[in-house]
Amino acid sequence: MIDTQDDVRRMLADGVDRLLEREYGFEQRDAMRKAMATGQGLDKSVLWPRLEELGIFMLAADKDAVQDPASLGHMSVVAEAMGRGLAIEPALPAMLGARLAALAGTAGVLADGQLAVVAPSILHGRESGFGAEAMDGGWRLSGQEDVWLGGDAAQILLLSARDMQGVPHLFAMPADQPGVTCTPYQLFDGRGAANVALNSVETNPAYLVAQGEALADAFERIELEASLLNACDAVGAMRGANALTLEQLQTRHQFGRPIGAFQALQHRMVDMSLVLELADALVAQAMVAACNGPDAGGWRLACGALVRTALSSRQIAEETVQMHGGMGLTEEYPAAHYFARLTSFELLYPAEEWTERFARLAPLDKAA
After folding, report:
1. Which of the four, 123, 140, 361, 366, has the lowest number of CB atoms within 10 Å?
2. R_g (Cα) of the chain, nearest Å
3. Cα dihedral angle (24, 30, 31, 35), rounded to 10 degrees?
4. What is the DSSP string of 318-340?
5. Contact indicator for 161, 171 with CB cutoff of 8 Å
6. How many Å apart are CA 183 and CA 32, to the nearest integer?
7. How many other C-beta atoms can be found within 10 angstroms of the C-beta atom of residue 262?
8. What is the helix, strand, coil percentage profile of the chain, to 5?
9. What is the full per-residue pLDDT of the chain (368 aa) written as tens digits?
10. H runs (alpha helix) in 211-262
11. Cα separation of 299 and 313, whole Å?
C-alpha cells in the first residue's frame, strides 16, 4: 500500500504479517467467528494482546504522531494486513477512536487499554443522530445511530452531538452508562458491530472532551482517513483473494492438467491482478495526499480511490467464488470469507455514492 522502504513501516508490516500467519490461522479465526455468532462475544485474549505489544494503538493515539505524515502510512500497513488475514478483531475501529481523540487534542481521555470506537456519522460525514441538552452539572443526550464497527466490544463511544444552538460537541461516553443501549450483532463478514441508542442519558462534565466549530476540522480529517484505511483493508482482502485463487488454478486439475493452463482462466486471473494493482495505486496516491490534510484535491483523489476500490472489490469477490466453483461458497473455505469481506466494503462505501461526491467537488484547476 504505502511505500514500505521506511524502516518503521517495514518492521510493522513484517510484525503484523508474522503474527497473523503464525498465530491466527483460518481455523482459529473461524472458531472465533462462530463463537461470536452464538452470543459469546469477541475473545480478546487471542490476538488483541499481541497487537498491543506491537504498539499499533499507541501509534494512533500519540498526539505528536498525529502531526507526523508517516503515521497514517503506518496505520495503512496494519489495515491492509488485517484485511489480508481476514482478522475480525476491531483493530481499525480502535485505531480510529484513538486517532480522533488525539486529533481533538484529548488523547488523555482514554485510559490505557480502553477500546473506543467512533460514531458512524463522524466516519461517514453525516449529520449526527444525537442531540445534547445542557443541564446543571452536565448534559442530557438522546438519539440513535446504527452500524458502529467494533461497537459490540467497545468500552468508550466517541460521539458527536449538537446543542440547542447548533454547536457541535464531542463526548466520550462509557458503553455501560445507564441509559446507553448497545445492540451487538455480526456483519456479513463476521466482524462485530452494534446499534447504539441513548435515552435521556445524563452525563457529567468529564464526558465532554471537546466542543466548538474547531471540531469540524478533526471530524473531516478522521472521515478522510477512515475511508482510506478501510480501502486499505479491502486492498489487503483483494490481495489475499487473488493469492488464494491463483493457488486454486495451479493445484486443481481437470482433463489431466491444472485449470490454470486454460487460457480463458489465465486472462481472468490477469484481469483480477490488474484491477487490484489499479486500486492499490490509487489508494496509495490518495494516502499521500491525505497526509497533508483534507483539502479539495485530497478529497478528489480519495473519491476516485474509493470508487475504484469498490469496483475492484466486487470484481475480485465474484471471480474468486466463480473460479473456485461450489467450494467457493462454503463457510469452511477462505474464499467465501474474502467474498464477504469485500462485499461488506462495497456496502459501506458504495461506488455510486462516491462517484456523486466526486462530481460535486470543484474541478482540479479550481481546487488547486
Report:
1. 366
2. 21
3. 120
4. HHHHHHHGGGGG-TTSHHHHHHH
5. yes
6. 19
7. 14
8. 60, 15, 25
9. 545 457 777 888 888 888 888 878 888 888 888 888 888 888 877 788 888 888 888 777 766 666 666 788 888 999 999 999 999 999 999 999 988 988 887 655 666 668 889 999 999 999 999 999 988 878 999 999 999 999 999 999 999 998 888 889 999 999 999 999 999 999 999 999 999 999 999 988 888 888 887 788 889 999 999 999 999 999 999 999 999 999 999 998 888 888 888 899 999 999 999 999 999 999 999 999 998 778 888 899 999 999 999 999 999 999 999 999 888 889 889 999 999 999 999 999 999 999 999 998 866 555 44
10. 215-251
11. 20
* Rounded alpha-carbon distances, angstroms, from residue 87 to 19, 26, 186, 296, 354: 11, 9, 14, 33, 26
Q: How many Cα atoms are found within 13 Å in the side-chain-facing hemisphere of 15?
A: 17
Q: Is 90:192 a contact under the CB 8 Å cutoff? A: yes
Residue type for position 85: G
Tell me the C-alpha distance between 234 and 303, whole Å.
15
What's the rounded Cα separation, in Å, for the pair 187 and 201?
Answer: 27
Cell 457541535, residue located: 168
Please state which architecture CATH assigns to domain 215-367.
Up-down Bundle (1.20)
Fill in the amino acid letter for 256. Answer: G
Q: Which CATH class is domain 118-211?
A: mainly beta
Collapsing DSSP to helix, strand or coil, 113 comes out as: coil
The Cα–Cα gap between 293 and 298 comes to 7
**Cα–Cα distance, 28 to 290 (Å, whole number):** 35
Compute the Cα dihedral for 36, 238, 119, 96 and give only its sign.
Answer: positive
Spatial distance between the Cα atoms of 15 and 54, rounded to a whole number of angstroms: 7
Residue type, 52: E
Give the containing element (helix H, strand E) for 84.
helix 69-84
